[in-house]
Amino acid sequence: MVEVKRLAKGLCAMLGVVVGIVVVLLVVALVRALTLEDLDYQEGAIDPGERDHLPESYLKGLPQLMARALAIPTVAWGPGEYDAEAMKKFHVFLRESFPHVFNSSVIEVEVVNEYSLLLSIKGLHDDLVPYMLTGHIDVVPVAKDKWTHDPWGGHILKDSATGESYIWGRGALDNKAGVMGIMMALEYLAKTDFQPERSFYVAFGHDEEVRGLEGAGHIAKVLESRGVQLDFILDEGMPVLKGVVNGVEEPVALIGVSEKGWVTVELEVEGPGGHSSIPPANSAVTRLAKAIVALEDNPQPSMFGQGPEADMLAYLAPKASWPFKMIYSNLWLFGPLVSRIMTAKRETNAVTRTTTSVTIVRAGVKDNVVPATATAVVNHRVHPAQSIRDVIQHDRKMIADPSVKINLLPRSMEAHPVSPYGPEVSPWRLLSAAVRHHYPNAITAPTVMVANTDMKHYLNLTSTIYRLLPVLVTNEEVAMIHGPDEGITVASLTKAAGIYHSIMVWGARWT
After folding, report:
1. d(CA 180, CA 54)
2. Segment 246-254 mean pLDDT
3. Beta bridge partners of 382
4. Rounded CA gap, 304 and 348, in Å?
5. Is the peptide bond before 282 cis (omega within 30 degrees of 0)?
6. d(C-alpha 394, C-alpha 392), whole Å
7. Are 455 and 224 a contacting pair, CB within 8 Å?
8. CB distance 473 to 282 below 8 Å
């Protein structure tokens, strides 16, 4: 009995210590959350100058121009397979729609590899390192029967539910919003004889959707051959999101500071074949199936905290509501919980780890023949905190069957380096200030771009690459990208043009 009492007393003391530690940790977390104003990572307000706005009279003509751009079917189906006539027609459209750009004495326009464009804008000061804005003119194919309106109709229609005017058409978001936004901003500057303080480039590839080898790949070679080095590049990326991040009501501009890598492997298993009436005990198909299940049940490890995703939440914390404010600002305490929550949802899971997708499975050719060979193609999108070698080692360990061959297929690519970000980084401050000038309540935060862009071709030109499409979309509208009924609101289009305009005007303010 005495021993039991002593044990109970010891357990109570231990429990008291644990409770005390938990209370102290929670108090520290609470204090940190309550003093977040000292940790606000956002660029402060900018005093607008005379040229810091696109006038209303100019903005009124932009929706019709965008509608005309969307009516040109610049479709890319595969590497080297695209609508060449539509590409040429789009070039003519740009020259007719933006005459001041194509006739400016400070803008040189080059056609690269027949269908891509490279614009060189001469600044006033040669000693300032230039930057580059990019986009792509090609779009993905459409399934017309899935669309409410003709994807090539160039329609501007009002949504009866929201009252918003939408410009409908394939490429409205990916990526003619970027191309047209840049050209609209540049045309106004050329029209008003404005010459920027800092030189910059504008690059529009014509085959980004199909690897970009003939477009951005050639543009990069042209720039490299001239010895060009850039301060930073801004390319397409995530749009400005509204109502997507838990606990954050304000618009969120998630700027991609890295891009996932890509590796595809083939799992190959050989075994005894023969007649299906006398099946083997452990067929090639069975062992392949076990290997696939092993990869599904044992995903690549979470990299939360080893990439920019933790900083993403820290940047959002000052504007988050409770209890998210406390959680996001204290990832040292709640990190494991946040990692587990992010893993549970496919969109956020893709940000925190290397993903595994079994995309092709091949085996038998006849219903009464046991196949002697079975294969599966597995595509990984590699997190920047991992290497391709790490990913394949994990696959091999989880499969744990030497009879399953893991063959590396062509076209692998390591994840892109993480570009510098934060209030102390000049290009980040420029981009953040431009976004907040047009969306005053917006929060800019770093993230990993889970899809792939043309930026793989430009890695030798700069160590600072950002990926953002400055267009405001809701959670529902995100599904439009590569999907049916793609469209952009008139308000978002004009804001995008305004943000690009601010970057061009302020290009030398932070150097």
Report:
1. 14
2. 94
3. 261
4. 11
5. no
6. 5
7. no
8. no
d(CA 428, CA 423): 7
Query: How far, in Å, CA of 186 to CA of 104, rounded?
Result: 10
Distance CA 206, CA 213 (A): 9
Query: Is 39 a residue whose pLDDT tops 70?
Result: no
In the structure encoding, which two tokens stand for residue 302, read together?
């979470």
**Calpha distance 420→119 (Å, rounded):** 26
Dist CA 8 CA 410 (whole Å): 64
* CA gap 467, 506 in Å, rounded: 19
Q: How far apart are CA 439 and CA 433, in angstroms?
A: 10
pLDDT number for residue 475: 80
Dihedral angle computed from the Cα positions of residues 155, 161, 162 and 164, in that order, rounded to the nearest 10 degrees: 20
Q: What is the pLDDT of residues 184-241, one digit of tens each?
A: 999 999 999 999 999 999 999 999 999 999 999 999 999 999 999 999 999 999 999 9
The DSSP annotation for 212-226 comes to -TTTHHHHHHHHHHT
CA distance 333 to 323: 14
Instruction: Give Rg (Cα) of the chain.
Output: 26
Distance between CA atoms of 366 and 351, rounded to whole angstroms?
Answer: 41
Active site residues: 138, 208
**Pairing verdict, β 465-474 and 233-242:** parallel
Q: How many C-beta atoms surround the C-beta of residue 450 within 10 A? A: 16
Task: Please answer whether residues 353 and 302 qualify as being in contact, where contact means their C-beta atoms are separated by less than 8 angstroms.
Answer: yes
* Whether residue 323 has a cis bond before it, omega within 30° of 0: yes
DSSP annotation of 463: S
* 153's tokens: 């109709």
Instruction: Indicate if the pLDDT at residue 414 is higher than 60.
Output: yes
The helix (H) or strand (E) run that includes residue 270 is strand 261-270
Chain mean position to CA 418: 13
Token representation of residue 180: 């047209």
Cα angle 318, 253, 433 (rounded to 5 degrees) comes to: 80
3-state secondary structure of 90: helix
Residue 284: per-residue pLDDT: 97
Q: Residue 234: in which H helix or E strand, if any? A: strand 233-242
The residue with tokens 């399934």 is 143
Specify the DSSP element, H or E, that contains 499.
helix 490-505
d(CA 497, CA 385) in angstroms, rounded, equals 34
The rounded distance, in Å, linking the Cα atoms of 395 and 295 is: 7
Tokens representing 95 are: 């020259």
CB 138, CB 76: distance < 8 Å: yes
| DSSP-based three-state secondary structure for 305 | coil
